[in-house]
């Protein structure tokens, strides 16, 4: 229900959905919204149990969305699928802040940090 309103909202710039247990299913709904939304610049999805499948969906969001500047994905059990996010950052040049802390990603976090330094 709430995601339907985002499809028609043309003024929302920041969305904070942390601690809502949206999981992968909710991530897919957000993906649909962000495919058509051109105003959102900040998205906080921390602690939502997105998991590895949700990380794959989020990497698609990062690839296609050119308005998002800040994305918080901390504490989502992303794990090794951080590689998908890394490859999407090579394509996206608008994202300047990305929080992936506490996701058990290992060395991927360091690689992502290097890529973000090139974004403006």
TrEMBL record:
<dbReference type="InterPro" id="IPR032675">
    <property type="entry name" value="LRR_dom_sf"/>
</dbReference>
<dbReference type="InterPro" id="IPR027038">
    <property type="entry name" value="RanGap"/>
</dbReference>
<keyword id="KW-0433">Leucine-rich repeat</keyword>
<dbReference type="GO" id="GO:0005634">
    <property type="term" value="C:nucleus"/>
</dbReference>
<keyword id="KW-0343">GTPase activation</keyword>
<dbReference type="GO" id="GO:0005096">
    <property type="term" value="F:GTPase activator activity"/>
</dbReference>
<dbReference type="GO" id="GO:0006913">
    <property type="term" value="P:nucleocytoplasmic transport"/>
</dbReference>
<dbReference type="GO" id="GO:0048471">
    <property type="term" value="C:perinuclear region of cytoplasm"/>
</dbReference>
<dbReference type="GO" id="GO:0031267">
    <property type="term" value="F:small GTPase binding"/>
</dbReference>
<dbReference type="InterPro" id="IPR001611">
    <property type="entry name" value="Leu-rich_rpt"/>
</dbReference>
<protein>
    <submittedName>
        <fullName>Uncharacterized protein</fullName>
    </submittedName>
</protein>
<keyword id="KW-0677">Repeat</keyword>
<dbReference type="Pfam" id="PF13516">
    <property type="entry name" value="LRR_6"/>
</dbReference>
<dbReference type="GO" id="GO:0005829">
    <property type="term" value="C:cytosol"/>
</dbReference>
């Amino acid at each position: 229900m709430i995601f339907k309103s985002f499809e028609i909202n043309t003024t929302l710039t920041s969305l904070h959905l942390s601690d809502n247990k949206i999981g992968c299913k909710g991530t897919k709904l957000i993906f649909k919204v962000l495919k058509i939304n051109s105003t959102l610049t900040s998205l906080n999805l921390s602690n939502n149990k997105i998991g590895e499948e949700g990380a794959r969906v989020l990497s698609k969001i990062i690839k296609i969305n050119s308005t998002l500047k800040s994305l918080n994905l901390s504490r989502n059990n992303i794990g090794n699928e951080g590689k998908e996010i890394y490859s999407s950052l090579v394509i996206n040049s608008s994202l300047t802040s990305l929080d992936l802390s506490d996701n058990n990603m290992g060395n991927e976090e360091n690689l992502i940090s290097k890529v973000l330094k090139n974004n403006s």
